[in-house]
Amino acid sequence: MRRLLIPLFCTLIFCQSCALLTAAGISSQGQPIKEVPEPLTSLQSTDPKIDHSPWTALLQKYVDEQGFVDYKGFKADQEALQAYLTTLSENPPTEEWAVQELLAYYINLYNAYTVDLIVKNYPVKSIKDIGGAWTKAIVPVGDRTMSLGGIENGVLRKMNEPRIHFAINCASISCPKLQNEAYTAANIDEQLDKAAKEFINSNKNDITEESPKLSKIFKWYEKDYVINGINSVGAYINRYATTKINTGAALNYIEYDWNLNEQQ
């Protein structure tokens, strides 16, 4: 009997692990994913799949140049925010969408629903105080529901575009700033470059030639930073940094500040 129970126990553990991985945001929920070409070029189209201008209007009202967010303003303007979220949810991407359209959609989807999560739990000191912030299925996309972790890990990271880590915002001080404009297919490459340069050269990193201190984003997603087929955080940073890290320099990491990125 005990011999029979052991395989059954292992099977249960395996299934539980699968469920945890799905809950932790590994699953794409069947969303279309396309690998980003190198180099990526913006899509010059007169017929965008989604009109992201309502998101730009909200961002320009409630996000300052430093990326700090007026969550009280968003809370007072929930009708406009919900209208944009509904547009995203009711117009899910398809395989026919260009990679630029997909990137813009998923980045805006992540950022807008993160703001919505904070607004619904406001006041809150940190996104980490919200149970299941990245694992709960709170993002409806067509007839499916995703987690924020699913958008990031199950979709965006699988598109092999490391600059997404500088574009999505987790509502925290140490995160890359929330840009005050929506990402669009027509400007996606330029916007991602801007986000990468701003974050890498900001005070969220202390880049020196010999002893750089970096955001933990570069530690957590180390495998994503690839240059010419070679995985190298230093080489990737040097593509955008004004101060270049010497080859072989030891990389140190700065403690992450999870406090809310709220305007004071």
Tally of individual helices? 9
What best-fitting shape do the alpha-carbon axes yield? globular
Low-confidence stretches: 1-24
Q: Give the domain tally.
A: 2
End-to-end separation = 64 Å
Q: What is the helix fraction of residues, given as a range?
A: 40-55%
- Beta-strand content bin: 5-15%
Number of strands: 6
- Series of secondary-structure elements, N-terminal to C-terminal: HHHHHEEHHEHEEHE
Task: Give the integer mean of the pLDDT values.
Answer: 91
Radius of gyration, in Å, reads: 20 Å
Structure classification: mainly alpha
Strand order of the largest sheet: 1-2
Major β-sheet annotation? 2 strands, antiparallel
Describe the protein.
Residues 95-200 form the DUF547 domain. Residues 1-19 form the signal peptide. There is one protein chain. The chain has helices at residues 2-23, 53-62, 71-76, 78-90, 99-121, 148-156, 188-200, 217-220, 233-238, and strands at residues 139-141, 144-146, 213-214, 226-227, 230-231, 252-253. With 264 residues, the protein is mainly alpha-helical. The chain has 2 domains: 51-200, no CATH class; 205-258, no CATH class. The strands form 3 sheets. It has a two-stranded antiparallel ribbon. It has a two-stranded parallel ribbon with strand order 3-6. Strand 1 (139-141) and strand 2 (144-146) form a beta hairpin. Helix 5 packs antiparallel against helix 6 (148-156). The radius of gyration is 20 Å and the shape is globular.
